[in-house]
Specification:
Strand content: over 45%
Shape: globular
Helix content: under 10%
Order of helices and strands: EEEEEEEEEEEHEEE
């Protein structure tokens, strides 16, 4: 659902992705020995710098299911607050299987797919493939990723997202600093509906996004602040799938891991 190096608020899903056999998510999950679950409340649910909850507070639930030492499936659900970006959907679901292809000398390469389903948003579900290359050195982790959604009616064309991320735990503290950014681009189908739907993921055409965050771990709780911004202009033309929650925003979140 983008995904930050520190767990992001949103997940979303389609059971059809399980049949693809290619997968995606964070390399660290590939080494998870047992299932894990987390619940998160955020003041705004943002993906790639864009709000997915109409700028309103949202709740999300994430789970990771290890199938083997190098194959996992991430599942998630999040409240979307009738977001116009997703056709008034009130719930987003996600399934994201992943496979770790390589793990050596601090390097990890993973690949996969993510299916996004929007409950209450008819005909707006879509899927994308993803690959991530990460490198861990001491308390820091670097990651480069690429996500590609082939041309689909639900998003008005294709969408390519390239990203870079870094996270670092501060020694002798319970704090983690993280940040990164990405670039979204793609094609648009040649029809009026496509011109509207392509603005779901690219409201003003190709654009850059960036974020900076800090997280404090308290046993099973994590409290964080995340600042996000984009190069999307303030003078967006109105549209069926457009909201104006695309600019700079400071959001807070609280995550509980049972």
């Amino acid at each position: 659902m983008n995904r930050y190096l520190i767990p992001a608020a949103f997940p979303a899903a389609a059971a059809a992705c399980l049949a693809t056999g290619i997968l995606a998510s964070s390399p660290a999950l590939a080494q998870t020995a047992s299932p894990s679950v987390s619940i998160e409340a955020a003041t705004d649910l943002r993906e790639r710098g864009l709000s997915w909850s109409d700028g309103k507070p949202a709740m999300s639930l994430d789970a990771t299911l290890p199938l083997s030492h190098n194959v996992t499936v991430d599942l998630g659900a999040a409240t979307l607050r009738d977001s116009p970006r997703h056709g008034g959907a009130n719930l987003g679901l996600e399934v994201a299987p992943e496979i770790m292809l390589l793990s050596s000398g601090g390097w990890t390469l993973s690949a996969g797919a993510t299916g996004h389903v929007f409950v209450g948003g008819s005909g707006l579900s879509y899927a994308e493939a993803k690959s991530t290359l990460s490198y861990a050195i001491g308390p820091a982790q670097l990651a480069l990723g690429a996500s590609y959604a082939p041309s689909q009616k639900a998003i008005g064309g294709s969408n390519l997202y390239l990203e870079g991320n870094i996270a670092m735990s501060i020694p002798a503290t319970a704090l983690t600093l993280y940040g990164g950014g990405g670039y979204s681009t793609g094609s648009t189908r040649d029809d009026a509906l496509a011109a509207e739907r392509v603005r779901r993921l690219r409201p003003d055409g190709s654009y850059w996004d960036y974020y900076l965050g800090v997280e404090h771990q308290m046993d099973r709780l994590a409290l964080g602040l995340r600042y996000t911004g984009t190069s999307v202009g303030d003078d967006l033309a109105p549209g069926r799938y457009v909201d104006r929650d695309t600019g700079s925003r400071l959001a807070a979140y609280l995550r509980f891991t049972p």
